[in-house]
Amino acid sequence: MLWDSNLIQKYNISGPRYTSYPTAPQFTGDVSKMELIGRMMEGSNLPISLYFHIPFCAHLCYYCACNKVVTKKYDKGAEYVELLAEEMRLRALMLDRDRKVTQLHLGGGTPTFLSVDNMRTLFKHVEENFNLVKDDSQDFSIEIDPREVDNAQLVLLKEFGFNRVSLGIQDFDPVVQKAIHREQSRELVAKVLDDVRTAGFKSVNFDLIYGLPHQTTTSFMQTIDSVIELNPERISVFNYAHLPSRFAAQRRINDEDLPSADEKMSILKESINALMRAGYRYIGMDHFAKPDDPLAVAQDNHELQRNFQGYTTNANTDLIAFGVSAISKIDGTYVQNHSDLALYQNSVENGQLAIMKGYISTRDDMIRHDVIMKLMCDFCLDSREISTKYRLNFMHYFTKEIEGLEQLKKDGIVRIDRETDHIIITVTAVGRLLVRRVCMLFDQHLNKQTTFSKII
Predict the structure, then answer these.
(1) Which of 61, 161, 275, 321 is within CB 3.0–4.6 Å of 328 for a Cys-Cys bond?
(2) HSE on the CB side for 145, CA within 13 Å?
(3) What is the spatial distance between Cα 114 and Cα 120, in angstroms, rounded to a whole number?
């Protein structure tokens, strides 16, 4: 992958992350709940991906933009599991019990806020309501705060079939950690990693964030060196978007402590170079993986997908999500739960699905979804795939968009191979960091949406 500072400066505008299309700002409360439920009940033979949002955190991290509830009252975990159990019961009535669950993810918040007993209860209800695949082909993962996990939890997770964990690292620099209110030593992380390996997990991801207060290229490279030494299978390097007007916790971060735009770009550039020198492959967006990791293998086999958790290996699944703010996707229908815990609880306790809003895709949305996801995951699109699947003439359907690609082609961001009746669009090495800008050409909803974070 090549780094072109001039192109990055020119094209580093605000844009969606495309974990869905249409993206979440298009979801609306105006759509009929009964129509959404009807769409969710339509028959399907696709495998299922389950997501559970656990909103509780014992500590407030100042950078965090997730839907969370900060509390030290761990008994709230048991109450919340009861709500998840009831929501599962309601949703399972709408699904064919024989459909296989090939993917399961616990996110948050801090999923390990749940005690061992709470987890055991949750898993019991999952098994009662769904047909889980547990033959080593499954992808069961959980996000872990190294400060909030113990060995008993890891053992239980492994027994249930979890095979991947993601550790929230962010930065090893103690000055940065203090500024973001997330102090955890490298020694603590190494100990947790050793416990994870001992428990038998086959894949570990480290989450890092660049652009945090007091970060410099030199200091963050020390973190990168430590991460490489600890040798996780996957690494995510996320951009910190400082939006204190939207996220109250970020107001505790001083603007003057943030790295300059130039320094931030230097941090990212050197991080990419270091990780690739260490043998990690750039998957896309913020994700890196070892060449033999299932994420890299899926990309090689053109099976890589994106959903609300980022890049994923399980192609062609329906995503069924549980908990506050969780988003489900069934075919082209998106359904989001209440983001307010009290409203979510009230709905579930009254025997109702906690639907806040949703979106039912049109045929045009479905076509553009496939185009965008192909570019995001494969960095390449053969228009014949879209033409054949949707029985259309791609060249005519996307005349305006193809014209828009010409400037990106001139700048070396894409290559376009033309034939009489089709084109092949390839995102170049220098264009991969800017793939979101390529996808934005095919996004019909952009002019109706709110402001996004910058592409890089």
Answers:
(1) 321
(2) 22
(3) 10
Q: What b/e string do you get for 278-310 counting C-beta neighbours within 10 Å, with b at 16 or more? A: bebbbbbbbbbbbeebbbbebbeeebbbbbbbb
Any bridge partners for residue 321, and if so which? 51
Q: What token pair was written down for 207?
A: 């989450």
E strand or H helix at 319: strand 318-322
Q: How far apart are the first and last CA of the chain?
A: 15
Answer whether residue 448 shows pLDDT above 60: no
Q: Which of 373, 332, 366, 367 is nearest to 42 (CA)?
A: 332
8 Å CB contact between 69 and 57: yes
- 207 to 82, 91, 425: CA distances (angstroms): 30, 31, 31
Those residues whose C-beta lies under 8 Å from the C-beta of residue 96, and which sit 6 or more positions away, are 43, 44
Q: Which tokens hold the place of 44?
A: 């399907």
Q: Is the overall model pTM greater than 0.90, yes or no?
A: yes
Residue 450's alpha-carbon distances to 85, 242, 258, 436, in angstroms, are 35, 16, 24, 16
- Rounded-to-integer distance, Cα 112 and Cα 109, Å: 9
**3-state SS assignment for residue 109:** coil
